[in-house]
Amino acid sequence: MAAASDYHRWEDQIRRTGGCADPIHLRGWVVHKDKTTGEMLHHYSTQTEPGGRLRVACGNRRASRCPACAWTYAGDTYHLIRVGLAGDEDKDIPTTVRDHPRVFATLTAPSFGPVHNRPDRGVCRCGTRHRADDPALGTALDPATYDYAGAVLFNNHAGELWMRFTNRLRREIAARAGLTQRQLKECARLSYGKVAEFQKRGAVHFHAVIRLDGPDGPDTPPPSWATVDLLTDAIRAAAAHRYSSVTVPAAGDQPARTFQWGRQLDVRPVRAFGDGSQITEQAVASYVAKYATKAAETTGTPDTAVYCRSCRGTGRSRRYDRADSALGRCTPCRGTGLGEDLARLDVPEHARRLMAACVQLQPLYPDRHLARWAHMLGFRGHFSSKSRRYSTTLGALRQARADYRAAQERAALGLDDAEPDTVLVLADWQYAGHGHTPGESVLAATIARNLHRNRETAREALQDQLSQEGAAA
């Protein structure tokens, strides 16, 4: 591969994707013409490319699938969270947002049974002091009594639980300010950005930056009564309130359940950079960005869906809707709703039991699509999300990057002097596959590591420079 005559062009393509592990292959052409004269300004075709294909980044956010594209996604998430904390005039968020009350909150899941852990003091309940990398961490002490069904049902309803929490939080804020809900909307707005994380035990919890703004969002100052202490107290009250719970009705052999957030609730004020606090704007943004590229595979589950595509995980035939007959059962998966045999998957036993619970509960809760999300241990929500006025958007960040690259391309083609409205762009692209050959994968991974190392070196140099400037000031 490295000795091929077109290797350098292939390497250039991979560098442009950031070292993507699973690039998309395209065939086609693009033509730039002058609208007035019809003169062809530039013509490009993939016929001259290695293999007759152009490789573009896959854009997958999961680090387990493509570390290079996940690094880009994490960078975008970092900037999204940071802008909501520190502001950025170029992104239409004023820097005065730093003066608004803001906290970093972590809401956890309740207990579903004792698990192996590493307490701050003493040893685990099993009598062992576990290593940090011990695979037993997070697994049930007694699998026979652990509530696997409750764990996956909690994950499945976590998004609704968050919605109820935010609704209750607005009421708690209004009550502490002596206002009604309508009056609160006229003088303050609640904004947040959050990310989901799976604990070792397979239960999802949320990290959230929560901020109080004026009625029009970050552009307006919050009212005088809005303080960090008031926001913190309201969050604790909202998380513990019974209206922040979700009730799951009884079904089959499963009892009715009421889910609430766990007792471990952490709420800390976010400080400005350089005040000596560990909970700084940069630290919070980095923490959130790190988990935005991860999912349930951190617990050992597969990073791809395992449900049956024929029945979409329902276990029922899409042709014969007859529950009282064998004809109503999906033939390819034999009614299990799975396209994979859980017993043959190379996953930890604790994760296997959680995935099996999703499958077993699917007939009891058909509208919850548990089997379809078995690889996510039942969780079906967004891993990262934000309120409307918290910050800029991922779309805006991606558009800014695309505009920058388009300007680079125009300069390279000698079209930067031409007005964009006078240039007609015609293109035709077709999908031609994806991925690398085994040899290409090794070379692409090396390119990705070199790019990552160079970026880390540049970032550390910039941080040292900012630290020196701050010390001098």
Poorly predicted residue ranges: none
Strand order of the largest sheet: 9-4-6-5-10
Distance between the termini: 53 Å
Helical coverage, percent range: 25-40%
Shape: globular
Tally of domains = 3
The pLDDT mean sits at 88
SSE order, one letter for each helix or strand: HEEEHEHHHEEHEEEHHEHEH
Number of H/I helices? 10
Radius of gyration: 26 Å
Category by helix and strand content: alpha+beta
Biggest sheet descriptor:
5 strands, antiparallel
Number of distinct beta strands:
11
Strand content: 15-25%
What do these coordinates show?
- 33% of the residues lie in helices and 15% in strands.
- It has 473 residues and is of the alpha+beta class.
- The chain has 3 domains: 7-62 and 395-472, no CATH class; 67-301 and 379-394, no CATH class; 307-344, no CATH class.
- The radius of gyration is 26 Å and the shape is globular.
- InterPro entries: RepSA.
